[in-house]
Write a structure and sequence with these properties.
This protein is about 65% helix and about 10% strand. By secondary structure, it is α+β, with helices and mostly antiparallel strands. It has a 4-stranded mixed beta sheet with strand order 2-1-3-4, with helices on both faces. Helix 8 runs antiparallel to helix 9.
């Protein structure tokens, strides 16, 4: 399968040029094979692109602007939908390609499959998304942490160690806070005495 990027090599619009460069640069960074098809110098490319962009995806004037992205004859989308896929880490899905092993998209698909099958195991706990959920839960309460601790004694030890460190930090802050309060009171007393002497 070949990804086809329909571009305009001699576009007068800097916005179009930047969008085209963004798509091509990202595909090159991911080492995805693609073919650039110029619609400015090749009328057949322009006609094919215009005929194969689905009607609901065409702008109101009916003429789709580059870049337009296809996987062989299957329409993938324009720059806006490409950008959304890029932001969501779903570019391979957007392009109709299988993500390579180890990519973020492959890991997300694997974790989604595990959750769908009901086999979310310890491996799932190591994924970034789950860690973010745990951090959010920690901020909102400890209910989720307690569930994790029941499932994994090692996690309980980690949580206990973090709690101990947090308590030590709090205890070390207390004397510093008390000292600041005492200094503030002394400053106020000195000011009062100075104003009484005047």
């Amino acid at each position: 399968m070949v990804i086809k990027i329909f571009l305009a090599s001699s576009s007068g619009s800097t916005a179009i040029k930047k969008k085209q460069q963004d798509v091509v640069g990202f595909l090159e960074a991911l080492k995805i094979d693609y073919a650039q098809l110029d619609i400015a110098s090749n009328e057949d490319n322009r006609r094919w692109m215009r005929e194969n962009v689905p009607g609901e995806k065409k702008p109101t004037n009916g003429i789709p602007l580059p870049p337009q992205i296809f996987n062989e004859a299957m329409y993938c989308g324009d720059y806006e939908t490409f950008f959304e896929a890029k932001e969501d880490n779903t570019v391979y899905e957007f392009l109709g390609l299988t993500p390579p092993p180890g990519s973020k998209e492959a890991q997300q698909a694997e974790n989604a499959q595990k959750l769908h099958n009901g086999s979310g195991t310890e491996e799932h706990l190591d994924d970034d998304t789950t860690k973010k959920e745990i951090v959010e839960t920690e901020q909102n309460g400890d209910a989720h942490i307690a569930e994790l601790e029941e499932d994994d004694p090692g996690k309980k030890a980690e949580t206990d160690a973090r709690d101990d460190i947090a308590e030590e930090d709090e205890e070390s802050r207390k004397p510093a806070e008390e000292e600041e309060q005492e200094e503030g009171e002394e400053d106020r007393e000195e000011e009062e005495q100075a104003s009484e002497e005047d």
